[in-house]
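Most newcomers find our protein records easier to grasp once they have seen one. A record pairs a protein's sequence with a compact description of its fold. An example says more than a description, so a record of this kind follows:
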Amino acid sequence: MNQRKSRTVSAWLRAVPGVRAMSSYRREWLLKDLVAGVVLTTLLVPQGMAYAELAGLPPITGLYTTILCLLGYAVCGPSRILVLGPDSSLGPMIAATVLPLVAADGDPGRAVALASVLALMVAAILILASVAKLGFIADLISRPTMIGYMNGLALTILIGQLPKLLGFEVDADNLIGECTGLAHQLTSGATVPATAAVGIGAIVLILVLQRLWAKVPAVLVMVVLAITAATAFDLGEHGVGLVGQLPEGFPPFTIPQVRLSDLALLLGGAMGIALVSLADTISNASAFAARTGQEIRGNQEMAGVGVANAAAALFQGFPVSTSGSRTAVAERAGAKSQLTGVVGAALILLMLVLTPGLFRNLPQSALAAVVITASLSLADIAGAVRLWRQRRTEFALCLAAFAGVALLGVLPGIVIAVALSVLNVFRRAWWPYNTELGRVRGLEGYHDVRSYPQAERLPGLVIYRFDAPLIFANAKAFRDEIRKLAGADPRPSWIVIAAEPMTDVDTTAADVLKELDETLNADGVHLVFAELKDPVRRKIERYELTRTISPRHFFPTVEAAVAAFRLRTGAQWTPGTHAAPSARPGPDTVTPPPPNEQ
């Protein structure tokens, strides 16, 4: 019995990613992980504090969060070098969820408790999604809508941090209000020159170092110089806000207490944060797994990030996500395993215990500079411009997502981004590309007559392609197009559906097909299907459509259908005489020019 229990415990331990990583750890990795951990810490501390303030929380909570999420992911995360922590993309979402609930009393302790409960909810969502193998949910946000969302988020962060950068405050609930307040404060002379000089100088220094000397820890250099300047010139006496003395030591294990009425209000924010965190995790894990030769385990990644959020939440932390920039720093520094993150967590803990006053003279505007430079990395203006050139409808989605974030707020923005992505999928199914096909000399097969106006056709025969599954949403559009083709002068006797793109026919579409075929037959027109996939053909037989549509009107290929028609009628190919087909193009159609005829 004891041996069986021992084997069970060993099996459970081997299932923990951190234990598996320890069992395969190589001695030659140790020095590289230690060095990478030291380098990473120089970035973790200022960013952790800055992103905590971005979330509307005390700076110290950013360090608590960083320590616990690194340790939690080291135990349960499958990636060897992925780095977690407070994130610039989550900060505004946390603030938008938590701050309205504490606006009445402005109690920092209540804000921390709410943020911790939010992290617990995010952890529960991610772990449940992992168990249910719902990693595909990250695909709910398309690339164009994500570009728009991130651009809107970058603008929101930038405008929100400018007052702190310049030394004043703006009380507003939305981007327009913040812009108006910012303009009013600037024109009224509220800017503190010393604060503005530190903040703007910090931004310039970070951007210059990142561009010219990418391997230099730009944020660390800026922080050291900012603290030195604040101490040497006594900038606190010149109106420059400083971080001040951080609490000494480490917080105790804490189960956050909030009102039950707050939970429903936190749930929407938790779902949005979990979705963004999931998308970040899958994309970053995929990118770095490809570079390190690892195999991505999406569901395990969700569980690892969920555990990291839970660990942070129980020690006065807030929601976290993976960080591409910090992971890249760790990778460049030579990180080989999650020991790098453990070293970073240990060094931050030692700093809090031994030297809590190390950052007391760090200017607040320097933290704002860290956030602003991070927001600039979120923006993808080039991606938006590329969408404008390549596909205007997806650029419109990008613009709508941007407007949703900028005008309505971060949480409504993520809802709009997801809704637009889903609606775009539905739009493509509802209004797919459809066209007639013809024979083109010198090319095998049958081709779009819109691209090849000179394509030959057979009198009495129309070959029609509908590039989508035939479902309830588009069945009537399909019917209308077929009726239009059947009503042409001269009237065709066969309409051959090149059905290879039809991956499904649902019951609604089957009823429409039955009614359509009966109507066409009454007019002497026959509906014929070619290249219908076997699973779809079996569905049609199960719907008993073959009682209406003759089984003889199903062909394995378009060529077989055309050969049967020619054998029956003796029709000969005739040159195309029209510039455009009667079929309607989809909304995203780009017509390529036909090749030059020899």
